[in-house]
Specification:
This protein has 208 residues and is α+β, with helices and mostly antiparallel strands. It has 2 domains: 1-30; 32-207, Lipid/polyisoprenoid-binding, YceI-like (Lipocalin, Beta Barrel). It is built from 4 helices and 12 strands; from the N terminus they run αββββαββαββββαββ. The radius of gyration is 27 Å and the shape is elongated. The protein starts with a helix and ends with a strand.
Length: 208
């Protein structure tokens, strides 16, 4: 073999080696995937209730949520079928007196409501439902959600009448009678409550 053929053989071998190395690298990369899960510590549950006939907003949150561990290959799927529970003792409105009344005169009047528990179900077009158990009753209400990377925001509005919470609403209104009285002299506590949830998903890369 002359010198020219020897050089050509070395070049061909080098190209073949580089090509194989690249293929192996690509194969390794393609055999990895992302797994999403809910992180309770980065999940915030806000609520907005209303008082007076002018429908003045009163905002607060629940500082604790428990979720049944679940992993999924997409942010949407980790929401679908997610089971959760919320201790009502974690209610927080930045007003200690109000929080005490909510625990005693609202949730304390309901049946079996140390926890609010439920399941999320996602459908199409960023919509879904939340099945919520409260006051011994399980009922669903519609929700909407948005996904941006690892961040999910979810919102919905529920009517407490669907959970037969009239007695609890009347109890709270009595305890807060003057505070829930508007310029017209009428004291009112609304049965409508808006829910806003924001969660930053935990993501890890795994080999498949």
């Amino acid at each position: 073999m002359n010198k020219k053929n020897t050089i050509l053989s070395v070049l061909l071998f080098s190209l073949l080696f580089i090509s194989c190395k690249t293929d192996v690298k690509n194969t390794i990369n393609s055999n990895k995937d992302k797994v999403y899960s809910i992180e309770p510590l980065t999940t915030k549950i806000g609520w907005t209730a209303y008082k007076t006939t002018d429908k003045v907003a009163v905002k607060g949150e629940f500082t604790k949520i428990n979720v049944t561990p679940k992993q999924a290959s997409s942010a949407k799927e980790v929401l679908n079928g997610l089971e959760f529970s919320i201790p009502v003792s974690s209610v927080f409105s930045n007003n200690k007196e109000r929080d005490g009344k909510l625990k005693q005169f609202f949730f304390g009047i309901m049946d079996n409501t140390e926890l609010l528990s439920g399941t999320l179900t996602t459908t199409s077009n960023n919509k879904g439902t939340a099945s919520l158990t409260m006051n011994g009753i399980t009922h669903s209400f519609p929700v909407e959600y948005m996904i941006s990377g690892q961040m999910i925001t979810l919102s919905g509005t529920l009517n407490l009448d669907d959970w037969k919470a009239t007695k609890a609403i009347q109890s709270l209104n009595k305890a807060c009678f003057d505070l829930h009285k508007g310029a017209d002299g009428i004291s009112k506590t609304w049965s409508e409550v808006k829910i806003n949830i924001a969660t930053y998903l935990k993501v890890k890369t795994v080999a498949v």
